[in-house]
Specification:
The chain is 33% helix and 19% strand. With 366 residues, it is α/β, with parallel strands linked by helices. It is elongated and about 75 Å long. Strands 1-8-2-3-7-4-6-5-9-10-11 form an 11-stranded mixed beta sheet, sandwiched between helices. The protein has a 4-stranded parallel beta sheet with strand order 13-12-14-15, sandwiched between helices. α1 crosses α5, α8 crosses α12 and α9 crosses α12. It has 12 helices and 15 strands.
Length: 366
C-alpha cells in the first residue's frame, strides 16, 4: 500500500488507477466511473461478479439528482436529511451516464458522502465510483492493516491513510417504485423513518433484523409484558427480529420485573419471563428501528431524545389512541387486564411487520 496526497490521487484516478479512500462507513476503492478498464480492475480485485453494480459518489445533492432520469420528488425530504451521509438511492439513470455503470434495467446507485477525503476527490473529478474494500461476500476490513492482509501483493494507492473509520453499518439502500419504496439494505436509517419522511409505503427486502423496542415508565410491568408477548408471537417468524424493553424512569432498587406482571404472564398466558428493569438511553434509541410506547407522554420524551419518525403508541396498531393502562401498585387482576390489552396490541403489531411485504405508512394497518 502506497500513501498518496490529493493531487496524486486525482491524477491516478484520471489515468485509470484505483485509489483507496475513507468514506462515511468503510474504506473504499475509488476510480473513474467512465474508465471501463478501471471498473474491471476493481471487480477483479474484489472477485465480484459484473452483475453486482457499484455505486457512484456525487459531490453534491443537486449533482446526484442529475444522475437520474426522473428523480422522485417525494424523496427530496429524505435526501435533504441524509445527504451527505450513508444513504444510497437506486433508480433509472440519466442518458448521460455511461452504459457500463448500469444494471440490466438501466438503473444506477448514487450516494453523496460526508468525509473530506472523498469529497475533495469527487469535486475535482465531478463524479467518482466507489465500493467497499473487501472481497465479495466478506466483511469489510476496518483498518489498513486488515486491508493489506486481504490484498497482499497488490500495489494500491491510499489517500488520507491516518483517517480512522469507526465500525458502522453500511449505507441504507433504497429504490423508489410506483407508490412505495423498496428497502434493499437497512443500514443506519430505520425503514419506519423513511416512511414517516416520505409518506410512502415500504417494501422491506433487506436481510438485516428489524429492531423493536417497548418503552414504559419503570420497565417493571407494561413494557416487559409487551416484550414477552412479542417474543412468544414471533418465535416462528420468517423475518429476523430483535426486541428489548426499557423504561424512562427506572428505580435503582428495581432488581426484577414486577411480581404481579410475571405472575399474570405465567398463570394466564403460560409465559415465564424474567429480567431486570433497564433505563432508556441514547444508544437504545439509535439501536431501535421501531419504538412502541405505552402512552403519549412517554412517546414525546422518546421523540425528543432522537426517536422522531420511528416512535409510535403501541395502541396505534389496534387503530386506537388510548394509553395502555398502568397497573403499577394495583391489584393482580389489574395486571391481568393490562396483559390482555397488551397482547391484543402486540398481535396487531406482529401482523403489521411480519412478512416480506408490509405497509409502514402512518395510519395504514395490516
Amino acid at each position: 500500500m502506497i500513501e498518496c496526497n490529493k493531487l496524486e490521487a486525482f491524477f491516478a484516478v484520471l489515468s485509470g488507477e484505483t485509489v483507496l479512500i475513507p468514506t462515511d462507513t468503510v474504506w473504499g476503492f475509488a476510480f473513474d466511473p467512465e474508465n471501463k478498464k478501471a471498473y474491471k480492475k476493481v471487480l477483479d480485485l474484489k472477485k465480484r461478479q459484473p452483475d453486482k453494480k457499484i455505486p457512484v459518489l456525487s459531490p453534491s445533492i443537486e449533482s446526484a439528482y442529475r444522475l437520474f432520469e426522473n428523480f422522485n420528488p417525494r424523496l427530496y425530504g429524505l435526501t435533504q436529511k441524509y445527504w451527505p451521509g450513508s444513504l444510497t438511492v437506486v433508480g433509472k439513470a440519466s442518458k448521460k451516464v455511461p452504459p457500463h455503470l448500469l444494471d440490466e434495467k438501466g438503473k444506477i446507485a448514487v450516494r453523496v458522502p460526508k468525509k473530506p477525503a472523498p469529497l475533495d476527490l469527487i469535486k475535482a473529478l465531478n463524479f467518482v465510483m466507489a465500493t467497499s474494500v473487501n472481497l465479495s461476500g466478506e466483511e469489510s476490513p476496518s483498518n489498513l492493516f486488515e486491508i493489506s492482509s486481504m490484498f497482499s501483493g497488490e500495489d494500491i494507492l491510499a489517500l488520507d491513510m491516518n483517517r480512522r473509520i469507526p465500525r458502522r453499518p453500511p449505507s441504507t439502500v433504497i429504490e423508489p417504485t410506483v407508490g412505495k419504496i423498496i428497502v434493499m439494505r437497512k443500514g443506519e436509517i430505520s425503514p419506519f423513518v423513511i416512511s414517516a419522511i416520505t409518506g410512502m409505503e415500504i417494501r422491506y427486502e433487506a436481510s438485516d433484523p428489524i429492531r423493536v423496542m417497548f418503552v414504559c415508565t419503570g420497565n417493571t410491568c407494561r413494557s416487559p409484558i409487551a416484550e414477552a408477548f412479542f417474543r412468544k408471537k414471533t418465535e416462528k417468524s420468517k423475518l429476523q427480529l430483535c426486541v428489548k424493553s426499557v423504561g424512562i424512569r427506572v428505580k435503582k432498587i428495581s432488581t426484577n420485573y414486577s411480581e404481579n406482571a410475571r405472575k399474570a404472564l405465567k398463570e394466564r398466558h403460560k409465559i415465564d419471563f424474567q429480567g431486570k428493569p433497564k433505563k432508556l438511553n441514547k444508544k437504545d434509541v439509535e439501536w431501535a428501528d421501531l419504538i412502541l410506547t405505552m402512552d403519549s407522554e412517554i412517546q414525546k420524551k422518546v421523540e425528543i431524545n432522537g426517536g422522531a419518525g420511528k416512535t409510535k403508541l403501541l395502541a396505534e396498531f389496534s387503530c386506537e389512541k388510548n394509553a395502555v393502562a398502568d397497573p403499577w401498585g394495583k391489584a393482580f387482576e389489574d395486571y391481568c387486564k393490562t396483559a390482555v390489552e397488551i397482547e391484543k396490541h402486540v398481535e396487531n403489531l406482529v401482523k403489521y411487520i411480519e412478512g416480506r411485504d408490509y405497509f409502514l405508512t402512518p395510519g395504514k394497518y395490516r
